[in-house]
Amino acid sequence: MKPLARYASLNRYVDLCRTVDVDAVALMRSVGLSPASLAHPDQWVPAASIASLLERSAAESGHEDFGLLLAGLRRLSNLGPLSLVIREEPDVRSALDVLMRYEHTYNESLRIRLNEVNGLATLRISLEVGEPVDTRQSVELAVGATLQILRSFLGSRWHPVSVGFTHNAPKDTSTHRRILGDTVEFDHEFTGIVFFAADLDAANQLSDELLRPYARQFLDSLPASETSDTLSRTKELIEVLLPTGRCSVEQVARSLGFDRRTLHRHLAESGDTFTAVLNSVRSTLAERFVANPRYSLTEVAVHLGFSTQGSFSRWFRTQFSTSPSAWRTQRSIS
């Protein structure tokens, strides 16, 4: 089943199209979306259709920053009823926890994951729209909107330590630096936001203690996220642990609160093995990093958890039927 997203994802889309002088109605119809449905923000549509719309809008308008410009118009209320719950959470950590646990109630393709290491908090943000379409604009919209949510709690003058995108930089980065800050990076190893972990414990000044029980009552009525299964969490942990050189089945199981045998059993229930999942995550990351000339092949090998470049090259040839250097050359030519 292809992931869906709410029409609320396109809130203020028509306004932005007017600003950049493009026909919002024609663009929406070109990807099979109904302009009239913008009046029904809770209606669901394929996330891939929204991604295609944003890419076409960027191309038609000549604005490589289209998705980010749309993010700049976002407010917490874009999350619909869930925004009422988040607004009443006591601190930033609790608000982000709700945002991540119930992300599927407003966008099934969105993945936001939080990690804390050495005093820094990292929000990794990705999209899985279920079709081979470009998601650059959608990703920038998601990152920009998440940053806006953080600022709604931490203040408009708050800035993250850094914001990163795996894709390359646009010709003009002025909008990115205005909205995201001067620490924005492109061709980064992951897409996401890094900030001081202490900010997670900042009190939510918007919260009303008397309204919190009612918000929680609404939250309890929402379905739990289907993405918090063992397979998804295993993939997330593998990606985080690979660069540390400690990505073993024992370490992943321990991080999940299992023993090794229990993890194997849970993965078997979904028709997977730890080795297969590890190779799948490595293959996805390898395609991203090897194609990026910013990283040397030695750096790629380390990031994928290989002790030597030779072992990485042998693994890569097994997976892609060619050497990493040949694969990189082929991609640069195409």
Share of helical residues: 40-55%
What is the CATH architecture term of the largest domain? Alpha-Beta Complex
* Largest beta-sheet characterization: 5 strands, mixed
CATH topology descriptor of the largest domain:
H-NOX domain
Please work out how many helical segments DSSP would assign. Answer: 16
Classification by helices and strands = alpha+beta
The percentage of residues in β strands lies in: 5-15%
Number of domains: 2
Write down the overall geometry.
Answer: globular
Q: Which regions are unreliable across 5 or more consecutive residues at pLDDT < 50? A: none
Description:
The chain is built from 16 helices and seven strands. The chain has 334 residues and is α+β, with helices and mostly antiparallel strands. The chain folds into two domains: 4-201, H-NOX domain (Alpha-Beta Complex); 230-333, Arc Repressor Mutant, subunit A. The strands form two sheets. The chain has a five-stranded mixed sheet with strand order 3-4-7-5-6. A two-stranded antiparallel ribbon has the order 1-2. It is globular, with a radius of gyration of 21 Å. The chain starts with a strand and ends with a helix.
